Amino acid sequence: QVQFVESGGGLVQAGGSLRLSCVASVSMFNLRPMGWYRQAPGKQRELVAGIGSSGTVNYGDSVKGRFTISRDNAKNTVYLQMNSLTAEDTAVYYCNVRPPWQDYWGQGTQVTVSS
Question: What confidence score (pLDDT) does residue 71 get?
Answer without folding.
Answer: 98
